[in-house]
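WARN  no MSA supplied for this record, continuing single-sequence
INFO  ligand: guanosine-5'-monophosphate
INFO  echoing inputs
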Amino acid sequence: MVPVKALEDKILKEGEVFPGNILKVGSFLNQQIDTAFMNLMGEEGRRLFEDAGITKVLTVEASGIAFAFAVASKLGVPMVFAKKHGASNVSGDVYKASVYSFTHKKTFDIVVSRDFLSAGDVVLICDDFLANGNALNGLIHITEDAGAKVAGALIAVEKGFQGGGDLLRAEGVRLESLAIIDSMEDGNIVFRESSD
Ligand code: 5GP
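INFO  complex generated
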């Protein structure tokens, strides 16, 4: 089964819609990780971005890490994650961005040590979910601050009705989402028809 269809089926079977437009997929993506399935998603990410000359995959802790690791491992490059909650346990100079968290309803600084991103890097930004685009914008800011190139962004589940994805595409970011949800009113999840 193609990974996109398999992901949609898994979301329908195992996902739960919570108030505030939050989709919980703790059984395979956010708390328990379905490792075999994650590898399949990583492979799909490799297929989409293998020609982009990626040197690093960048995400933000905690829930982006598993997907970003799977993609980076298939591409054969390191994965770097931005840390939240201030820079207290990140030594030395950092790249920093302020990000409003959709799930926690507050603003965090996210930081990446300058040791792990540099001007020669070609970066693929990965995350588990895309809603309004704040997390992605923070990671794009950090990448650009490092003088590195943003090759694109890869998302496991985009909530298309929240508009962050459309804004980023309009800005010219190459954004690929494995599944795009167009609506989830009354717990009824509807996916966007794929264009290919
Ligand atoms: P954005 O910054 O695009 O508004 O939201 C994306 C971030 O918030 C992701 O890093 C993700 O962890 C979290 N997030 C947003 N919406 C959801 C959701 O429906 N379910 C889960 N589990 N996380 C979400």
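The pocket of guanosine-5'-monophosphate is lined by residues 22-24, 30, 63-64, 102-103, 127-135, 159, 164 (CB under 6 Å).
INFO  checksum written, moving to next record
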